[in-house]
Amino acid sequence: MPHMTDERVRAGLAREEDLSLLHEVSMKTAGVSHLEMCIQCGTCGGSCPAAMDMDHTPRMLFAMLRAGMREEVLRSNTPWICVSCYHCVVRCPQEVHIADVMYTLKGMAIHAKLYRDSTAPHFSQTFVDMVETFGRSYELGLASRHYLRHFPLRLPGMMPMGFGMITKGRMAITPKKIKHMDQLKKILEHAKTLELTS
Amino acid sequence: MNKYLLYPGCSMESSAKAYMESLNTILEPLEIHFEEIDDWNCCGATEYLGINLIPAYSLIARNLALAANQMNGTHTVVAPCSACYLNLAKADYYMQERPSLGVKVNEALQAGGLKYTAGTLDVRHLIDILVYDVGLEAIKAKVVHPLHGLRVAPYMGCMLPRPDYQHRWSDHEHPTELDDLLRALGADVIDYPLTTSCCGGHMTQIGPETAFELIRRLVADADDRGAVLMATVCPMCQMNIDAYQNEMNHYFGTDYHMPVLFFTQLMGLAFGSEPKDLGIGSELVSARNALATIGVEVPVTHEPAGPRKKDEGLPMPRRWTKHEGKEVVK
C-alpha cells in the first residue's frame, strides 16, 4: 500500500525506510499476508500456546516491524518458538497469515545471521540437507546429527527411546532415496535463484 | 470402488509405520482404492519453509505436479499426515491467492520438466475422506467388534483443522469429525477440549522445554478426564506424545501412562482385525492394558531397556530435568 506509506511519512508518523521493513516482510511471505492490516489487538499472543517462552508476542513483533526495528525483530526468538499451530491465524480478525510471517522472519534471520540460538536454524538446515540429498526425510540421520551437535548431554537419556524406536521398526537404519533425484535437484537449484517480488 | 491418489509422506514408512499398516487393513472392507503418487518426495515439513520460500514451495509442488500427471478418473489427493496435508493444501491455495507465487514455482518446476496449475487437485486428509466420502453409516456397518467401554480422548491436533483455507472442517478449534468416527466404532469418547491443541511439533527437537509443557497439558487433561487412550490422526502428534512421554515424565517428575494410537488402528480393531496386523505393540507407551479393558489381547513384544535407576555411581551426565535443563544444554 504505497499510498498509505506516503501519508504516514508525510504526517511524520514514520520514516520511509522504517515502513519498508513491514512491506519487505509482507512481500516475502507466501500468499497475501495482510500484515499491514494488523490492528494490534493481541489476539495472537493470547491464543499462543508457546507465548510464555517467546521474547515478544506476535503482536509486539509486528509493532516492532512497523517501527522498522530490523535487528531487534530478527534477533527475537519468537519465530523460532512458533509451533505452527495456526491458533492465532484462525482467530486473527484481520486474517494476517501470522504463521507464514514467522517462516519469513526465520528465513530473513538466517540470511542476516542474526539468530541468537543456533539450535533451531541448524535443525531446519539439517532437515533440508537430508531432503536435498535423498528427496525424503531421514529420521535417524537427522536425529543423530542434530543431537550430537546440540544436545550431547541429552543423548544418554534418549537411548532407551531411540533403541525402542529401532527395535520396534519405527526408525529405518538406512535412508530411502527417490528415483528422480536429478529432477528434484534441478528444480530446487533453479528455485534457489528465484525470489518472490510481486 | 472409490479411487484416490495417495501421498503417504515420509513418516508413514518409518516412525508411523503402524499408521500405514492399519490404513492398508481398513481400505478393503471400506472399498476404497488408493494409488500412490509415483516417486513422491518429502513435503519439507515445517522446516524448509523457514529456510527459503520458493524452493520450499517448489518441493511441495513437485508432488502436486506428479499427482496431476497421474490423475485417472480422480482429482483427489489424500494425505494421512496432518503436516503433509497442510503443506500440500496450503501450497495449492497460496499459488491461487498469490499468482506470482504460482508463476515462480512453475518456473522452477519447468527446470525438471514439470508444471502444475493451482486448483487442479483437491487435497484432503484421510479422515475427511472416511467421514465425508465413505460416511459414518457405512463405517458403522463394518463394525464387528464395537469398542464399547473404551474411554478414548479424540485428539485432532492443530495442523488438520487450521488454517483450513478450503473450509473442510466442522470447526477450527473444536471439530467433531474424530469424535463422531470413534463413536461410530462404539467407543466411549470423552469430552476433550484440548483436541486441537499443539503437541509441540518440531519443538521436541529444538526446544524441549516448550514441547514438554505442551505434551504435559494434553496427557494430563486426557488423564484427568478418565481416558485410557488417546486417538490421533497425525504421525507427528503420535511420535511426540508416545516417544517423548517418558522424557516429559522425567522433566516434570510425573508418572503418566497415556498410550496414543492412530484412529485407523482402532478402526481395524472394530472391524475385527488382529492387533499385530494393525501395528499395535509398536507404540512405546504400551496400549496393552487399555485395550485389555475391551477384551483385546495384545501379544507381548520386546520392551526397551528402562532408564538407569540410580543417579549415583559412575559420573554420567544426568537426565534432563526441569530445573537444570537450561543450564545443562546450550
Describe this structure as you would to a colleague.
The complex is a heterodimer of chains A (198) and B (330). Chain A has 12 helices and no strands. Chain A has helices spanning 2-10, 16-28, 43-47, 58-66, 70-75, 78-81, 87-91, 98-112, 119-134, 139-150, 155-167, 181-191. Chain B has 330 residues and is α/β, with parallel strands linked by helices. Chain B folds into 2 domains: 2-126, Glutathione S-transferase Yfyf (Class Pi), Chain A, domain 2 (Up-down Bundle); 145-292, 3-Layer(aba) Sandwich (Rossmann fold), CATH 3.40.50.11810. Chain B contains 14 helices and 8 strands. In chain B, the strands form 2 sheets. In chain B, strands 2-1-3-4 form a 4-stranded parallel beta sheet, with helices on both faces. Chain B has a 4-stranded parallel beta sheet with strand order 6-5-7-8, with helices on both faces. The radius of gyration of chain B is 21 Å and the shape is globular. Mean pLDDT of chain B is 93; it is low at 325-330. The interface between A and B is large, with 79 and 89 residues.
